[in-house]
Write a structure and sequence with these properties.
Elements (H helix, E strand, L loop, with lengths): L4 H7 L7 E8 L2 H11 L5 E8 L17 E9 L11 H17 L3 E4 L3 E4 L8 E12 L5 E10 L25 H21 L1 H11 L6 E6 L3 E10 L5 E5 L4 E4 L6 E4 L3
Parallel strand pairs: 1-2
Antiparallel strand pairs: 2-3, 3-7, 4-5, 5-6, 6-7, 8-9, 8-12, 9-10, 10-11
Helix pairs in contact: 1-4, 3-4, 3-5, 4-5
Protein name: biotin--[biotin carboxyl-carrier protein] ligase
Pfam families: BPL_C (PF02237), BPL_LplA_LipB (PF03099)
Keywords: ATP-binding, Biotin, Ligase, Nucleotide-binding
């Protein structure tokens, strides 16, 4: 069963999300909304697809799942000129909204691996790991305005046989008995609306909210960099620009943006 378009639209009335559409299938929800931005659509649209045939993650990695097993949702967000230098924070703010929605609707403990991978905690007999990824892109409307297109793919009922990599999971595999995509979409959109307001008006508060759910800070990590370089150290902070700060074993601090990093993983002990 598809997420309930009418129920979602009614529940988010009064937020920035003025248009909600749910479709059985599309190539990429992000690409569809970006095309709409360039054609003149106003920000505030939401597109949910049961299946994406050309979904993408960071570094153009494919992102897909069988029908009915994932909440694939994209939104468009206006980026005011004054906030444009902080546009890199949008995917991090989105990650906070996804974590809060998962916790609220399923009771499964979730956190964020920098920058925006939603991780579910492992409990005995269940499968923890990455359950969602987020991709934020920028598009320009016909008047030169900047609009962010933010896509989130949350694995809801993905079976173990369909998990793409060993480190991935779904809400069902992590212990959620009956993940409701309609309820998850509503909670996510409400939290995202609130988080975007904070991002625009109080960047320090948005950073604090992110650090509250980030599981990477304080962790010893291995960072894969372009050119086959590797950095091992302790993640000590996420700075005001959303970059991870890693202190190596000599105490030197490395400040890395998401674009600088190919992979970041917990270091093997």
């Amino acid at each position: 069963m598809l997420p309930d378009q009418a129920a979602i639209a009614a529940a988010v009335r009064g937020t920035r999300w003025y248009d909600v559409a749910v479709v059985p299938s599309t190539g990429s929800t992000n690409a569809d909304l970006a095309d709409g931005v360039r054609a003149g659509d106003e920000p505030g649209r939401v597109l949910i697809a049961d299946v994406q045939t050309a979904g993408r993650g960071r570094h153009l990695r494919p992102w897909s799942a069988p029908a009915g097993t994932q909440l694939s949702i994209s939104v468009t967000v206006a980026v005011p000129a004054a906030a444009a230098p902080r546009a890199g924070w949008l995917s991090l703010v989105t990650g906070v909204a996804a974590v809060r929605a998962v916790r609220e609707e399923t009771g499964v403990e979730a956190g964020l691996k920098w920058p925006n991978d939603v991780l579910l905690s492992a409990v005995p007999g269940k499968r923890g790991g990455k359950a969602a990824g987020i991709l934020s892109e920028l598009a320009t409307d016909p008047h030169g305005g900047l609009v962010a297109v933010i896509g989130t793919g949350l694995n809801t009922t993905l079976a173990a046989a369909d998990v793409p990599v060993e480190t991935a999971t779904s809400l069902l595999l992590a212990g959620a008995e009956d993940p409701d995509r309609t309820a998850l979409a509503i909670a996510y959109l409400r939290h995202l609306d609130a988080g975007l307001t904070t991002w625009a008006s109080d960047p320090a508060a948005a950073r604090s909210e992110y650090l509250d759910v980030c599981v990477t800070v304080g962790q010893r990590v291995t960072v894969s960099l372009p050119g086959d370089e590797t950095l091992v150290g302790t993640a000590v902070d996420v700075d005001v620009e959303g970059r991870i700060v890693v202190a190596d074993d000599d105490g030197l601090r490395h400040v890395l943006s998401a674009g600088d990093v190919t992979h970041l993983r917990p270091a093997r002990t």
